[in-house]
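TL;DR need structure tokens for one chain.
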Amino acid sequence: MNIRLPATDEPELSMSPLIDMTFLLLIYFICTCSLVMPEADLGIRLPGMVAQATSIDMPDEQIIEVRGNGQVFLNDHEYDTATSQDLPELLRTLRQYKASSEAAGNQALITIWADDETPHQRVIDVMNACAAARIKDISFAGNTQ
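>> reply
TL;DR here they are.
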């Protein structure tokens, strides 16, 4: 007895599920990877400070005195008016002090001395001027009575 086997076709591999899976994996890896640009050494030098020909003798610390009526003194020199909130003259002087301290290799130090009757807002105005001049080392002094 001859048994006939059914004719077997060549097995086919369907490409559409493989393409779908490939795109799904591609989307997964695109979404999960982090795009971080590596830092590169550009090898350039930025312009720096010019060396001073003569040494300037500067005090290590500047004292800002705030009086009860709103007057602001830096090393016994009055700056701006008692009602000025932005203190442009003091700010300009503090920026020059910061730049000259950095050029000399020193740290810019400020001490704020306020009277007992000084409004808090006036001290905050002086602190804002120091912050605008990028002076971070500020200390406070008070009466020692």
